[in-house]
Fold this protein.
Amino acid sequence: MTPIAARQTGLSDRTRHGRATNAVAELFRSKLSVPNIYLDPKLATPQIDLLAVDKAGSGDLHGVEVKIPNHFASSLPNLRANVARLKVWPAHFRYLALPKSRAIENMLPKLQLFSPDGFGRIGILLVTEPESGLPQVEIAIPPERYRVPAEGVQKVDKFLAKTRPDIETRI
């Protein structure tokens, strides 16, 4: 959906962002085993848009920053800044969700997605916003597992202990 199309359908930027975040949550709900998903978790700086915890809240941490709508800042310096923020987030798997466009796809090879220590790569999710229907998410670049320091996991564990997930798989 282009900015012009967004105005024609009456969807605000906030609504488009929320719909894209929900589409990413649905991807994780179908890909992970018994995930607990937290939307807009208030537990870390920099803030992420979605935290998925595998195995009913006791498994790997998946953190996602959603950058929709597509006029957010489709420039290489802005994308690099978003990648740099995610590299310090305490999650085993980290993702950046971007609008699918030729310009974004051309910039992806220019991003340094790997961790400096060689353990981990940020995954890239591309979101398509059709004129009608639900947003679609594809994994353009799969993530690789990051090494997460114990203090980072402890910080997330404290949040998980006192917060109910927004999307919970009941077993």
Notes: The two ends are 37 Å apart (CA to CA).
